[in-house]
Design goal:
The chain is about 35% helix and about 25% strand. It is built from 15 helices and 18 strands.
Length: about 475
């Protein structure tokens, strides 16, 4: 019977590699020291396989990617250090066992080989999310095989379940492994950093570190999706998979280092753990159902109508009638309406009307909720089993009015630009849209209006209803 002997979270800043950093790595010495400490720990464990989950391989919206050729190569040439190269042997039997167990659980996987990589239009190579941690591991450890996994944009409970599949695959084999969850924390810790600053960055880093230290899995899965989105992290999904592989253990995280010197959070953590009779997966399922029940029970009629409209359409194949609970205002008012869907904090669909095309706001919501879930060309249609994981919001537009650049405020007003029959719209108060010029430029490009065109500008406000 195989076992996962240790679990680690590791960041992947290329600058920590001396051949890349050229002395800058000295500014994050605590991170370097912790990397070497982990490599020494792994060297003492007598393992034959390292399982690493990374954000920077081929990421699929609906599948987890696993490298499936006999070996995989990579180097840090993209960071001006091509001499730092890797040629890793893949543990094919264990990788295939993981894939088969995931398939039995209904979790899609993408098997990446040189041949399939060409089909997907990607390169078959080791990514820096794996290479940076392995750079330090390889200083102390050799003669091991690799399981190389890139998380997908799946619901977090599916990623947790995938982690459970990894654990079972190891235990059904004769493999002794360690598990590395590769990922940086917030990328928005400093105004001087490459990604800027938001207060949610520091909030996210403090909270995720504290929750992992306490072994609070439910807390990790209950983190505020708005904070997660604004923090701009890339490690949380790796952690979901790792926590799934730790299902059936009580654990505590041991923080070896944390630094945000360059405006990005780098956390290295090891874990002490022991077997437990608790099945955290079923606990998470129950908590998820409770959250959904609370969310739907407290939803205002605008959001409730949007959710019920799309649900009815997916189940019945048609538009629902206006229900009794809608308010008089929703029946008597005609306005443009945008319905937005988000899943795990990521946009899943958004369709709206600038001006009303139905008899009331209620009918506008019914129509646009279905369109957002089934007709947004940027996304595949929403499926019935996704509905509980989706958050709905409804924006009711005020009457647009002609305006000038000087009278705009991207936090308060949305914009409509028009030129020769072309129309572009952008809603107000969007993340990453902080100036009037950014707002107008995005709206103009959406409509295909040239930058030199003398286009008209209208502004509007929205009344936003969300879950």
């Amino acid at each position: 019977m195989g076992t996962i002997k240790a679990f680690y979270t590791m960041p992947h800043p290329p600058i920590v590699v001396p051949e890349v950093g050229w002395g800058e790595e000295r500014k994050i010495k605590a991170t370097t020291d912790a990397f070497y400490k982990v490599s020494e720990e792994i060297a003492s464990l007598d393992i034959d396989t390292i399982i690493i989950v990374t954000p920077h391989g081929p990421v699929f919206s609906d599948a987890v990617a696993l490298s499936c050729d006999d070996s995989i190569k990579g180097d840090l040439g993209s960071f001006r250090a091509p001499q730092v190269s890797f040629n890793m042997e893949i543990n094919i039997p264990l990788t295939e066992k993981i894939i088969n167990l995931a398939k039995a659980e209904g979790i899609l996987t993408a098997q990446i080989t040189k041949k399939s990589a060409r089909k997907y239009g990607i390169d078959y190579k080791l990514d820096h999310g794996a290479m940076v941690p392995l750079y330090f591991v390889n200083k102390k450890v050799s003669n091991y095989k690799l399981v190389h996994i890139t998380y997908g944009m799946l619901p977090k409970l599916q990623l947790y379940k995938f982690g459970m599949c990894i654990r079972k695959a190891v235990e059904d084999s004769d493999t002794n492994a360690v598990f590395i969850a590769s990922g940086d924390l917030s990328h928005k810790l400093s105004y001087e950093g490459p990604y800027g600053y938001v207060p949610e960055g520091e909030m996210f880093d403090r909270e995720i570190i504290s929750l992992l230290q306490k072994g609070d899995v439910v807390g990790v899965f209950n983190m505020d999706s708005n904070v997660i989105e604004k923090a701009a992290e890339c490690g949380l999904r790796s952690y979901y998979v790792m926590l799934g592989a730790m299902n059936g253990y009580d654990f505590n995280g041991n923080l070896l280092s944390y630094e945000g010197t360059f405006g990005v959070g780098y956390s290295i953590m090891s874990f002490s753990f022991e077997k437990s009779s608790r099945d955290m997966y079923n606990t998470l399922l129950e908590k998820n159902k409770e959250r959904f029940q609370v969310k739907t029970a407290n939803a205002d009629p605008y959001v409730r109508l949007a959710r019920e409209s799309l649900t009815y359409y997916l189940l019945q194949g048609g538009y629902m009638e206006v229900p009794d609970y809608v308010t008089k205002e929703m029946l008597d008012t005609k306005r443009g309406v945008f319905v937005s869907l988000k899943k795990e904090g990521q946009l899943r669909g958004c369709i709206g009307t600038i001006f009303p095309v139905t008899k009331s706001v209620a009918e506008e919501i019914i129509r646009n909720a279905v369109e957002a879930g089934t007709q947004d060309p940027r996304f595949s249609p929403v499926t019935e089993d996704e509905l509980e994981d989706i958050d709905f919001s409804v924006d009711v537009l005020t009457e647009p009015e002609l305006t000038t650049r000087e009278e705009l405020d991207p936090r308060r007003y949305g914009v409509i630009v028009r030129w020769r029959g072309r129309t572009g719209l952008l809603l107000p108060d969007l993340d990453g849209v902080d100036t009037v010029e950014e707002q107008l430029d995005i709206a103009r490009r959406k409509a295909g209006i040239p930058s030199h065109a003398d286009y008209s500008i209208e502004r509007f406000e929205v009344i936003r209803h969300g879950e």
